[in-house]
User: Fold this.
Amino acid sequence: MNEEVVVSFLAAAIRLSVPLLLAGIGILFMSRSGILNIGMEGMVLMGALAGVVGAHYYGSMEAGLLASVLAGAFIGLVFAFLVVTTGADQVVIGTAINLLGLGLTTVFGRSLLGMGQEAVQAEGIPVIPIPILADIPYVGEALFHQNLLAYASFLLVPAAALLFYKTNWGLQVRAVGEHPLAADTLGIRVHKTRYACCVIGGMLAGIAGCSLSLGILNQFTENMAAGRGFIALSAVIFGKWTPGGTMAASLLFGGADALQLRFQSFGIQIPYQFMLMFPYLLTMIALAWFSGKGKQPAATAVPYKSLSNRSE
Amino acid sequence: MAQEMRATIHESLERKLNVLTDIVFYAGSVAIALLAGGLVMLVAGVSPIEAYKLIWDGAVGDANGFKETLVKATPLLFAGLCYTFAYRCGLFNIGAEGQLYVGALAGTVAALYVPGLPWYVHLPVCILAGCAGGAIWAGIAGFLKVGRGASEIINTIMLNYVAIYLVSYMVTGPMKEPGGTLPQTARLPDSALLGKLFDSRLHYGFLLAVAAAILLYFILHRTVWGYEIRAVGLNKQAAKVMGIPVNRNVLLVMMLSGAIAGIGGYAEIAGVQNRLFQNFSPGFGYDGIAVALVGGAHPLGNIGSAILFGGLRSGANAMQRMTGTSTSLVYVIQATIIILVVCNRYWFGGLKKRIIASLTARVVGRRSDARPEENVAVVLGIGEREGRS
Assistant:
């Protein structure tokens, strides 16, 4: 293969890993506070639709991005209410959110944006070459010719790491995820922390959706998340519940996706289905490998009833 | 003695009222979800009344519609039972979708590559192969749970995608119909197909599913093994202390749960589609979760809820043909039902307790004033059968 192919592969790998990374960091926020979100797929879909609807009806990609963030925050809030306040089972609610996301976006996608060839095209998120860096041969073309969300998502990784490991709030989040009762006795508001993490996670899910619809295709297509919500969950697990690990796993899975597309177009004989299985298989191996080593926050998926509310 | 008697009567009555109020609240949840679906239609610019009329006519309007409802209910019932069985053992098997696919794949392999058998041998062999496929697929998650402590929730989800891509690979590659252009296998031989009922699309798979529900009911509620399973589901620690082999049960339950979904997958191929192709299931496995929850995680309750959701699906197909509103509307209704049922205790817990308390007081008070206690027992039918624990 020549250099051009390699450069375009790298650029595509990064482009395809952006939605995974954004959704993954979103899941990470929830996971760290002890909430298992298998509803990411549905949240990403809602963000994707909201982005195109916002961009189409208000005529700018900024409006689309804002709509995605708001839609994500709203669904995050609903999710938080269901799993934190009512203490409902997180797995089941997550599944419901996936169904809701698929159902609502398909019905409204058709009625608001049309379908097939006539589907609305919206203003996409602009590609901004970074001055100087973009002129570096090969690397510049691949890494610094990306859209705004791509840069933002990679900047999010150190930001999240700082937040989790260097701030008081990050410590509180981790405490809530590991041992909510202990956190509660120390005066940390468990429910409030979990709500905050869910809303942040929801917003990131919305942006992830936007990065799919406005960032890659400039339109909404039915079920366009195509399992990426679950791959993001894989990325978090494979990344051992850390921001850096999540980023590495997102790049790996995004790279597999980009490679798979190239295999198909070059007619290479490795069946593309095996490339598509790769993230899921790797996650299962990783999960079997880590288990018992205490990587997953201990209180994952366990509802918590706060001390002040236990008067039954 | 009289006091004890009264206490037993009280308990039994309470249990019955509990089931009764549950049914009322579940029905209420379904009604609210239908309203929510109507709201979505309204916003999407379709008249909900007209759409629901189309759904109703499509689902139960005539004999053919109702048969189609049962056709759709068949895989839903298998998937619901798959989730129910694992759930009663405290396991979350979110992998019915993948197990359906692998079951269908394994059954199809047996159907296409074991030729020359009479149907009464071939069909059972294919169904057993479907069973084995589903059991192995779920067994992987069960094994990783027991052996490595890995979450069966995550693993079953991951295995769904692996299964879908595996089937996609098989039908575009090794198992593709010789000479065909579409990504699908050859037509299954007649000896491997499930017979049709009443000259319609309805096939014997539906009866198999109902039989599976009844069998599961007996296993769960009438055998020692079922008691063990439910004990593990209620409290793993306590079950272990009682000497119940928790790990063995977890593995076996996962495998049997997968086996049920596996038959469901093969039944859909051998009863409806006649050949295996990509994405033959529009998410039946995930719908199974809603079926199980609305069915009260009870095998027999699953039959009713599978027919309800089957009706929604077949009705929604009719609606899509007439109005162009996507069948995906059904997902919105399903999701709302799931949310309402799961949060049932939060919304209605207090109300339910009060209703039961006041009804119990009224019935026990009145009856025991009027008759001897023994007769009350007869009136209330105590001792007929054990209730659910």
Q: What stands out?
A: The mean pLDDT of chain A is 85. The first helix of chain A runs from residue 3 to 32.
